[in-house]
Every structure is written in structure tokens, then in C-alpha cells.
Amino acid sequence: MKKISIFLVYTDLKDDILLALKSHLETIFGYSVNFYGLVFDFSLAYNPKRNQYISSKIIDLFSKYKKNLKEKWVVLVDVDLYSHGLNFVFGEADPKRGIAVVSHARLNPEFYGLAFDEKIFTERLIKEVTHELGHLFFLPHCFHPNCVMSFSNTIADVDRKNKSFCFICESFLKTYLCMEKIFII
Questions:
Q1: Does residue 184 have a pLDDT over 60?
Q2: Average pLDDT of the chain?
Q3: What fold characterizes domain 3-183?
Q4: Which end of the chain is more exposed for a tag (fewer CB within 10 A), N or C?
Q5: What is the share, in percent, of the chain residues with pLDDT greater than 70?
Q6: CA-CA distance, 94 to 136, in Å (whole number)?
Q7: C-alpha span between 18 and 12 (Å, rounded)
Q8: Once rounded to an integer, what is the mean pLDDT over residues 42-51?
């Protein structure tokens, strides 16, 4: 069965937020989505000089436990992430291993000194998880600024884009999903 596993690592999100995320992802990708609460030590990814975690290292740590290459895994964390050459990232994906990590730390309006807004937070979370899952389905960054696959360098970029794919990215995704049925990728 086609399955997306989302691991909530040291993070607790309201059921309403998780249900909205699940509904969106199942509609977009046609995969079943399951959530798992998990205690997992990813302290090896921590960089004390930056007070951030390197996203690729979290993916490395999780990859040791992934047995089914057909599954798509999203590791959802609430710590601040960075990647080499970037001050921060909202997430990162490794399509070959089928694992992505998404942080909701910078998606929360409170990170910017604003009051928590569940609607804004949920929309941002849906966009970023969809974006990273898009990479797991081998979609590249898109040049259409409103496409969910456009690169987000700031929170304003996240807010600007839609939570769905542009026509071109959706066509590539449908082609991949169709090939998956034929060739059992």
C-alpha cells in the first residue's frame, strides 16, 4: 500500500491541525497518511555554535531505520533547522531515501513575536510538508512563485505561495504516480 508516514518527534500538534494536514496530503498524493509520535535522539545533528540542527543529519539518522523504499517518511520537528550554505531551512528532502524533515519552528507566528494564529500556522505547515513531499516524488523547485514547489527563502515566501501545485508540477506528479502504478516504483 502506498503510504506516507509522518513522525512527530518531540512535538505535539492539535488534532485539528493533523487532520487538516492528513486530508490535504491524501487528496494531493493519493497515499494513506499515518502519524506516529516518536521519541528519537537526534542530538548528533545539533550545532551549538548556531543553536540549530542540520537537517541532512536528521535525515541520515532516520535513514538507518527505513526498510521499505516505497514509503515516504516526513520527520516533523519543532527545532530550528539549517542546511550548508543557508542560514535556515523550513525543511529538506532526500528523494533517493524517501525521507524529508520539516520544522514547524519558523512556521509559527510566535517565532516572529506575533500571537499564535492556528489558521496561519496550519496553512504554512501544509505548504511546507507538501513541498518536501513533492521533492520525495522527485519534483524540483518551481519558478512559478505561487506554486507550492517554489523555493521559500523567507516566511513571506511561504505565505505567498499556494498549498497546491501549479499545472506543470501537477503534471509531473501525475506522471510519476502513473509510472509508479505501471512499474511499481
A1: no
A2: 92
A3: Collagenase (Catalytic Domain) (3.40.390)
A4: N
A5: 97
A6: 7
A7: 10
A8: 95
